[in-house]
Amino acid sequence: MRPSGRAFDALRAINLETDVNKYAEGSCLVKFGDTHVLCTASVDDRVPSWLKNGGKGWVTAEYGMLPRATDQRTDREAARGKQTGRTQEIQRLIGRSLRAVTDLKALGEIQVKVDCDVLQADGGTRTAAITGGYVALVLALRHLVQIRKIKALPLIDSVAAISCGLHQGQAVLDLDYAEDSSAQADANFVITGKGGLVEVQATAEQTPFTRAEFEALMALAEKGTAELAAIQKAALGED
């Protein structure tokens, strides 16, 4: 039995609320159970210096956790003077995931910055950030089409992410903190709407896991991200 009582292949309650920030060109409050992440997408007419006059745009991300996102308060990273390695890893993952489904040439010399701020953490903050960050990105790109900065949405696919793990010997979908902290293995999968793999992060926490166990995790991830893709479409009002 999972601590949450969910079936082994069940997602947490997922909610994607759009247009939650009046200023950002795109925004989404994503909830994976008790993990809540505010994603905002901001448009910038300036691309990084190394892309200037290259005819291509850029999509990047920043990630952070509020001091009381967890059960114990943590100092803001700005107060410490630098980001942790974990923060840098996660924001790079979010950026890579969003760029994987964006036609940067069609975007032109425009940059979209996606900020993912964790309001409350209960496991799976990076996967929630990618899933909600994609929705915020789409809304920002729609804004660019609406104001005629670009002719059409420069997207080649959708993208979502989910965690899976081995908990008490069972492959389970969408780990919350209780499961993640005691899992024998955990993995994060970033998968496009067409089923393409963007990134897989898998780690044995106790003993090595087998190929068969990994394939069980992969099958759950494919099921979970397909469900997330449908939720993304509904939130965006797509057929």
From TrEMBL:
<dbReference type="InterPro" id="IPR002381">
    <property type="entry name" value="RNase_PH_bac-type"/>
</dbReference>
<keyword id="KW-0819">tRNA processing</keyword>
<dbReference type="InterPro" id="IPR001247">
    <property type="entry name" value="ExoRNase_PH_dom1"/>
</dbReference>
<keyword id="KW-0694">RNA-binding</keyword>
<keyword id="KW-0698">rRNA processing</keyword>
<dbReference type="InterPro" id="IPR015847">
    <property type="entry name" value="ExoRNase_PH_dom2"/>
</dbReference>
<keyword id="KW-0820">tRNA-binding</keyword>
<dbReference type="Pfam" id="PF03725">
    <property type="entry name" value="RNase_PH_C"/>
</dbReference>
<dbReference type="GO" id="GO:0031125">
    <property type="term" value="P:rRNA 3'-end processing"/>
</dbReference>
<dbReference type="Pfam" id="PF01138">
    <property type="entry name" value="RNase_PH"/>
</dbReference>
<keyword id="KW-0808">Transferase</keyword>
<feature type="binding site">
    <location>
        <position position="86"/>
    </location>
    <ligand>
        <name>phosphate</name>
    </ligand>
</feature>
<dbReference type="GO" id="GO:0000175">
    <property type="term" value="F:3'-5'-RNA exonuclease activity"/>
</dbReference>
<feature type="binding site">
    <location>
        <begin position="124"/>
        <end position="126"/>
    </location>
    <ligand>
        <name>phosphate</name>
    </ligand>
</feature>
<comment type="subunit">
    <text>Homohexameric ring arranged as a trimer of dimers.</text>
</comment>
<dbReference type="GO" id="GO:0008033">
    <property type="term" value="P:tRNA processing"/>
</dbReference>
<protein>
    <recommendedName>
        <fullName>Ribonuclease PH</fullName>
        <ecNumber>2.7.7.56</ecNumber>
    </recommendedName>
</protein>
<comment type="function">
    <text>Phosphorolytic 3'-5' exoribonuclease that plays an important role in tRNA 3'-end maturation. Removes nucleotide residues following the 3'-CCA terminus of tRNAs; can also add nucleotides to the ends of RNA molecules by using nucleoside diphosphates as substrates, but this may not be physiologically important. Probably plays a role in initiation of 16S rRNA degradation (leading to ribosome degradation) during starvation.</text>
</comment>
<feature type="domain" description="Exoribonuclease phosphorolytic">
    <location>
        <begin position="158"/>
        <end position="224"/>
    </location>
</feature>
<dbReference type="GO" id="GO:0016075">
    <property type="term" value="P:rRNA catabolic process"/>
</dbReference>
<feature type="domain" description="Exoribonuclease phosphorolytic">
    <location>
        <begin position="11"/>
        <end position="140"/>
    </location>
</feature>
<dbReference type="InterPro" id="IPR027408">
    <property type="entry name" value="PNPase/RNase_PH_dom_sf"/>
</dbReference>
<dbReference type="InterPro" id="IPR018336">
    <property type="entry name" value="RNase_PH_CS"/>
</dbReference>
<dbReference type="InterPro" id="IPR036345">
    <property type="entry name" value="ExoRNase_PH_dom2_sf"/>
</dbReference>
<dbReference type="GO" id="GO:0000049">
    <property type="term" value="F:tRNA binding"/>
</dbReference>
<keyword id="KW-0548">Nucleotidyltransferase</keyword>
<dbReference type="GO" id="GO:0009022">
    <property type="term" value="F:tRNA nucleotidyltransferase activity"/>
</dbReference>
<dbReference type="InterPro" id="IPR020568">
    <property type="entry name" value="Ribosomal_Su5_D2-typ_SF"/>
</dbReference>
<dbReference type="InterPro" id="IPR050080">
    <property type="entry name" value="RNase_PH"/>
</dbReference>
<comment type="similarity">
    <text>Belongs to the RNase PH family.</text>
</comment>
